[in-house]
Write a structure and sequence with these properties.
Blueprint lengths: L10 H8 L3 H8 L7 H14 L5 H6 L6 E6 L6 H23 L3 E6 L5 H5 L3 E4 L7 H8 L4 E4 L8 E5 L2 H14 L5 E6 L4 H16 L5 E5 L6 H10 L4 E4 L4 H11 L9 E5 L4 H6 L2 E5 L4 H8 L9 E4 L2 E4 L6
Parallel strand pairs: 1-2, 1-3, 3-4, 4-5, 5-11, 6-7, 6-8, 8-9, 9-10
Antiparallel strand pairs: 10-12
Length: 328
């Protein structure tokens, strides 16, 4: 998935077009180093052609000591729930590696149980992707004055960014869409976990139903998805006439509903959350609400230079609803 907005040209884009390293590109654009005059001129010409402008935020980070971003990784034992979280975290790490490389930074991975490594790593900024992880590393970074970037978490007294990934807004928009289509009893499928993302989704659903004096119908799916079919039936037996799948299993739920005769393909009776590949939802004509946690890393580089004072700046990532096709 990509957002509608056009991605800004990065230092890496210029380097790739010019056929040189990002280090050489940085030297050319900042009139440093021992590059040959013709190489320096060629790089500057490519930068002008692409419309590259220096990233002030990245430049501010380069005033630090190490040109390194710390990424907090959970080292808890693996189970079904941990595996699903690990997959999301891997996508976030990959996004951070790409964004960091584009801005000339390296990534240092820190286990969440080792706050002592913050001092040894001498990172310029700490990226905390999952609020469910142990926060010892985060607290150590705050104590040492290291700027912190955190997803869906506000760290009072810390310089940095609080990046809201949009789950709350996405839930409310999806429920409003189903209600506008005539749904009276909207059921929620959510992961059975204490992960903040799922708590955000369920809290938004409960608040939405309370404001509208609707009876909430919630079914929780186990991490291994062994109870998915049973929980779908639970919602239907409880009288749900529409389902919002916050657990992202839209295609499988749709096929189950269609098999029971409870869904007419062109009816809007199912909306699914989507954070990765929307292709199958698109092929089935499922309306899905897309959030973009993978944009957090690039947002960090684009906005960190705006941070000042001792409180984090709050940034909202984009999200959108993709309407399913009425014909298949």
């Amino acid at each position: 998935m990509t957002p509608a907005a056009t991605r800004a040209v990065t230092l890496r884009d210029v380097a790739e077009r010019a056929g040189v390293s990002t280090a050489a590109t940085s030297q050319a654009l900042n009139d440093r180093g021992n590059l040959r005059p013709e190489t320096r001129a060629r790089i500057k010409a490519v930068a002008a052609e692409l419309g590259y402008s220096p990233n002030r935020s990245a430049a501010a980070l380069r005033g630090g000591r190490t040109m390194s971003v710390g990424f907090v990784m959970s080292d808890t034992p693996e189970d079904d729930a941990a595996e699903r979280r690990a997959l999301r975290r891997t996508r976030q790490l990959n996004a951070l590696v790409r964004a960091s490389a584009a801005h000339g930074f390296a990534v240092t991975v820190l286990p969440d149980s080792r706050p002592d490594l913050v001092q040894r790593a001498q990172i310029d900024v700490l990226y905390f992707p999952d609020p469910a992880d142990d926060r010892a590393v985060l607290r150590e970074a705050v104590t040492r004055g290291v700027p912190v970037v955190a997803n869906d978490l506000y760290i009072a007294g810390a310089a940095g960014l609080s990046i809201r990934t949009g789950y709350d807004s996405a839930v409310r928009a999806a429920l409003a869409l189903l209600a506008d289509a005539g749904a009276e009893r909207i059921g929620l499928l959510v992961d059975e976990s204490e992960v903040p993302r799922d708590q955000i989704g369920e809290s938004a659903y409960l608040a939405w139903t309370a404001v509208r004096s609707r009876t909430p119908i919630v079914a929780r799916v186990d991490p291994g998805r062994r109870r998915l079919a049973r929980e779908v039936r639970t919602l239907l037996d409880a009288g749900a006439d529409a389902i919002f799948s916050f657990c992202e299993e839209g295609p499988e739920i749709y096929l189950q509903l269609e098999a029971t005769g409870r869904v007419i393909p062109r009816d809007l009776q199912l909306v699914a959350l989507c954070t990765t590949d929307c292709a199958l939802n698109d092929r089935l004509g499922i309306t899905h609400v897309c959030v973009h946690p993978e944009l957090a890393a690039e947002t960090m580089f684009a906005r960190l230079g705006e941070v000042s004072g001792s409180e984090p700046r709050v940034i909202d990532l984009p999200w959108e609803i993709v309407r399913g096709s009425t014909t298949r």
